[in-house]
Specification:
With 230 residues, the chain is an alpha+beta fold. The protein has a domain at 49-127 and 157-186: Kinase associated domain 1, KA1 (TATA-Binding Protein, 2-Layer Sandwich). It is built from 4 helices and 6 strands; from the N terminus they run αβαβββββαα. Strands 1, 2, 3, 4, 5 and 6 form a 6-stranded antiparallel sheet that branches. A hairpin with a 3-residue loop joins β2 (74-78) and β3 (82-89). α2 crosses α3 (168-188). The mean pLDDT is 76.
Length: 230
Amino acid sequence: MNRATQHAVPLLRALLLGTAALAAGCAMFGGGEPVRVYEREVFDRPTAFSREFVASPADTCNAARRALLSQGYIVQTAQDEQMDARKRFQPEAESHVQIEFHVVCSPLARGQPTSVAFVSAVQDRYALKKNPMSASVGVSPFGSISLPLASATDSLVKIGSETIPPGRFYDRFFDLVEQFLAEQKGLDEPPAAVAAPSHAHLPAKPAKPPKPAAELERTGVLPVTLPANR
């Protein structure tokens, strides 16, 4: 084997290994088109993003507003049949999470005191980013030179956003709305009327007996006898 062949064999071996690694990488990631997110939407009617209530749309949205306020959410916009609210969290020192609620209440059946509440919550994630400050120093022969300073400014950068999937999160919210609707129904009911005492079953007062004539003469009051009609 000559010297040229000895140098060609390692080079060919490296090319073969590189081709095998590339094929393995393509097989790992599927080797085809990426799965599109909208293809996972099935649009089934039974969903955990809504629930029916035996109440008017206005009362349902009012109960939803009270439920969110009781949990520390800040109501941004509120109308009779829709509302938006949000709440901030800080699970770690340099991370920030914000949940936004969107509630829409719609009548379920015409002429019936029923409604359906559609709810979706969006979770936005933020990360703390440090931006070092720099200052430019002018030097006449060389122009300006940027020198980094020790101080820095911190800012929150949005790194992700997604709709919270169906599950216990929405179930707990709807259960709390049910409790507030029950309390509101108890406040709207008129108090029980107190029945007035009936005099039908009371014993009749006994009639006073007529006073004798001797007592009437002593008091000076004499009975008057009217003539009979002829």
